[in-house]
Amino acid sequence: MDLDALGACLTTPACVVTQTTSGLIVGMLLFLVAAGVTLIFGVLKIVNFAHGTFYMLGGYVAYSAFGATESYALAVLAGALAMALFGVAFERALISRVYGSNVLMQLLICYAVVLIFDDIVKIVWGPEFHAMGMPPAFQVMPFFIAGGVVPPFYAVLIGIAALIAIVLGLGLSLTRLGKTVRAAAINPQMVSALGVNTTLLFAVVFAIGGGLAGLAGALAAPVRSLSPGMGFSILIESFIVTVIGGMGSIAGALVSALMIGMVRGFGTIGFPKFTDGLIYIVMIGILVLRPQGLFGRRQ
Amino acid sequence: MKKRPALRDAAISALVLIVVLAIPYLYRNAAFEDFIIRLSAMALFATSLNLLVGNAGMVSFGHGMFYGLGAYAFGLTMQMTDLSLPVAAAFAVLLTAFAALCVGAICVRLSTDYFAFITLAFQMLFFSVIISWQSLTGGDQGLRGGIPRREIFGFELTSQLHRYEFCAVVAVLGLLALRHISASPFGQTLRMIRDNEERASFLGVVLWRARLWAFTIAGAFAGLGGVLAALFVSGAYPELADWPNSGQAIFAVMLGGINSFLGPVLGAAILLALNDVVTRFTEYYGLVLGIIILAFALGLRRGVLDFLKLALPGRTR
Predict the structure, then answer these.
(1) Hey, are the CB atoms on A94 and B298 less than 8 Å from each other?
(2) Of A217, B102, B177, B306, which sits 20 to 30 A from A287 (CA to CA)?
(3) Per-residue confidence in pLDDT tens, chain B, 317 aa
(4) How far apart are the CA of A50 and the nearest CA of chain B, in angstroms?
(5) CA distance B99 to B50
């Protein structure tokens, strides 16, 4: 524990800016992954333990696409699209067979997918860490806010994630698809009885969730290294985000992802060895005081 | 015919114990003895988890915490004090039970999904404490320096044979105790809560109290499993309390069958054997295990023993 360092950081604008940006990066990436988890849970009542795998594969696909095309925009697009397709395939081939059955069965299937794809990544890309490197377009001078360094890529990344959050929020509340999705979350049988093709709807939800996780993986590739186990840590964190925010709530996912991001950003200065522990304590506290999460409805 | 289930269970355990203890005198095989030692730890771990999952319907993702705690408490007590082995083991189990009581007091009132998550959170919190409290636990290197192996009742645990016998005896006695608990009125109460908690509540069962008891007992037996694991590796590692370990226990329970008492033991044995066989042929253990899990989850759809029970009707138990 190093409270002096934390105090010193909080009183220096430069340090505050730097830690806030790094916290925002963590938070925004987490939000993209957790939004998919919470959407899938909200509509299908399935806790998708394989969501970290989408994130990992998105990162690797983007890495390969970047190597082939040298265009980062194409790489991000490839990562997101590939994972949207993968999400649909995963839902159709595996998850759709265990709707309504034991929760543990669903968990086992996801666990199996995690194990299989961790090894497939090892076979295809090798067990070592890969670094994609910063795309040339972003290899420019960082700008400074109040003396704190902000790399341009960070700003772009935060901007894209914020844009997605807005599109997702507006899309869910205003568009026809969004309204159908929200209705299906409350009463899927009724939605189906009203003539909506719920089979298609469920696949679309998985496509959106998978696409968001793939996008997050592709966006994270330049700033984080790629490794076969990378899906796992983000999975656990995105669960924490989902639980804190309230299962099924997109707004809750955004708020709690940013909160976790900030705990990470500033926790590394105050409690360098216990940042993870700090996050679990936050989660336990919230679950005890408000089991349904910050934005969740009581069941 | 009047049945005496308690007597029959005791007779079966005695028989199993005699067979297991007799094997080394007829045929020594180090790999087999290692397997039994590891199985005894894993069987206690998985069966105690099934007291929660199968009997009480409480899906805990954080059971590894108590396994790890048992291992660390035992290892540290042996290293830091001069207590004899059974006393240190008893102390470790008591400490684990107390920890389970405290964690359970916070968790058991939550509904299924949230119960799973909060137990996971507690486990991960415990895991990060192990990692960050380096001066006590050795951090991610694990507890090293070995566990002093004092002799007990003329046993020396440095000898593989004695260790094998010790683990087999502890595991069989532990399983017998768990069997008793699950067949007792208390076990019946847990199953009633699982099937219809409102009804149980109307019949005067205090739900949280029964669940808290189940959680504490399950934690204590997982701790006992952890003690055996610590004995086997002669130390304790953070991985014992990590997420994949809990996942493995859940899979052992599912694989063997949650509705059969011996299901988790069979599941643990299959998993361990699979691990031994597959890692000999390929480094991609996860790939093979994943495909097997998929085949099992989509094909069999229930544990092996549960499947056999359905396939061979006539026997009600």
Answers:
(1) yes
(2) A217
(3) 456 778 888 888 888 888 888 888 888 888 888 899 999 999 999 999 999 998 988 989 899 999 999 999 999 988 888 888 888 899 999 999 999 999 999 888 887 778 888 898 899 889 988 988 888 887 777 777 667 766 565 556 667 788 888 899 999 999 999 999 999 999 999 999 988 889 999 998 898 999 999 999 999 999 999 999 988 887 888 888 888 888 889 889 988 888 888 989 999 999 999 888 888 888 888 889 889 888 888 887 777 888 888 877 755 44
(4) 12
(5) 19
Interface with chain A: mutation pick from B284, B300, B304, B306, highest number of A CBs within 10 Å = B284
The letter for the amino acid at A265 is G
Q: Is B39 in contact with B268 (CB distance < 8 Å)?
A: yes
Instruction: State the nearest Cα–Cα gap between A63 and chain B, in angstroms.
Output: 22
Distances (CA, A) of B162 to A51, A58, A118, B90: 46, 52, 40, 19
Query: CB distance from A111 to chain B under 8 Å?
Result: yes
Angle, nearest 10°, between helix axes A103-125 and A230-245? 150
Kindly report the pTM of this predicted structure.
Answer: 0.86
Q: Considering only CA atoms, give the Rg of chain A.
A: 19
A122 CB near a chain B CB, below 8 Å?
yes
B287:A276 CB<8 A: no
C-alpha B130/C-alpha B75 separation (Å) is 13
ipTM, 2 dp: 0.82
The whole-angstrom separation of Cα B221 and Cα B223 is 5
Question: Per-domain residue ranges for chain A?
Answer: 3-132+191-289
| CB–CB contacts below 8 A, A to B | 107
